[in-house]
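Run: sequence + nicotinamide-adenine-dinucleotide -> complex structure.
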Amino acid sequence: MPAATEYKFFEAVEKSFDKAAAFTNWDKGILEQIKQCNSVYRMNFPVKIGDQIEVIKAYRVQHSQHKSPSKGGIRFSLSVNLDEVMALSALMTYKCAIVNVPFGGAKGGICIDPKKYTPYELEKITRRYTSELIKKNFIGPGTDVPAPDYGTGEREMSWILDTYTSLRPGEVDALACVTGKPVSQGGVRGRREATGLGVYFGIREVCSMERLMNKIGLPTGVAGKRVIVQGLGNVGYHAAKFFREGGAKLIALAEYEGAIFNPEGLNEEEVFQYRKKTGSILNYPGAKNFEQSTDALEIECDILIPAALENVVNQENAPRIKAKIIGEAANGPLTPEADEIFIQKGILVVPDMYLNAGGVTVSYFEWLKNLSHVRHGRMEKRFTENMNTRILNQIENLTGKKVSKTEKDFILHGADEVDIVNSGLEETMITATREIIDCWFSNDKIPDMRTAAYIVAINKVATSYAELGIFP
Ligand code: NAD
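>> structure
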């Protein structure tokens, strides 16, 4: 595997962009504007850790502002650097465009190993980072709205919200300054599992397309397919759960300390609990160990889901990958060199910038909830249930037949917040998949699904820039 410093993530994103831009007719100036990162904030701030003062390095990059606010997660990891944050913020621009979420792209990162700090220390770091963002107007419901990413979750989003509301008292829409919050703090039901569920919806749609499946020699449908997931964090855990529930077989799970393999299938929740208890995924009963975690990526399977970090499949290991479909749940898990190898080998790569858009899609629903100050479904749930009861009663009276209790409960049920959120997500992922595939099949010179996804994104962002009247 090449050293991290050799891999230029932003350059890789630019390369994919250029490849796709060649299939469009947009003015060179517009394309150049889209590619650039509009605002880059690099900061160093001191935080007292024990008896020492540590200087913490952090970033927030707003790649685009053709729509407001900009949106993107915050990552806590030692691998965080400017190149990575710029690349991830660019991916956010394209991701939001593809799934029709009206945001610009942004990303943030703090260069720390969160495992080395106590919760109190992490809170101090997160709060200080937030106050730096506030000082420079890099956060706010209408300017830039962070969310969770690698190494962060609901807890960190709560700290961000609390810091924001303390420093900006009286802002009526303050709850919308960050998404991925706990439900008790203005979060939306369904956000926690959204990215993993979106990955499942996207791959399920791809697997339902006969023409695509014929191309790679697989039957349609998710059921029975052998799946490998790398990373049992927020995205990987939930993706694994929905694949198993959808009838697929989880044959291998990989974490950073190693991987386990069982051709009969694994249960992600049981493995998760086992790892919590023993501190490792290894030696899981009935499964074969892989001390070298990345070896699991090379096991024969139908669907490989890298859901940890970028650059895990590259020039070195790509020739040994035997999956038929690779679903990029993580951001940038494949290098451009690996991509080329998979195009040659006929492996279908379902690209990150739309496949993991479930998080930002449901973040959008959370932001809308915060701005409207009302829970999704509150206004119509009871009305729907009353109306459905009347309709069903009429049908039963007119036919003289009774509907079973289970069916009745299902039909009468008015939508709760989580039902609305999940159906909005399902609709978004299905529509985006179809749009990208239609674009891909519209021109046989388009080499892969990633290029098609970029073309769709470029067309949408360019239209938006052009319609803004920036380029007379
Ligand atoms: P997370 O921190 O919840 O989980 C990441 C998991 O990967 C952890 O369990 C970690 O131990 C594991 N891991 C780290 N290095 C590994 C290695 N070398 N091999 C195997 N496992 C390893 O992070 P997350 O939120 O699930 O994010 C994962 C990826 O998904 C990132 O690329 C992130 O940018 C992307 N993503 C996340 C979201 C979201 O809503 N959280 C949305 C879109 C994209």
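>> summary
The first helix runs from residue 9 to 21. Residues 148-151, 195, 230-236, 254-256, 293, 307-309, 329-331, 356, 359 surround nicotinamide-adenine-dinucleotide (CB under 6 Å).
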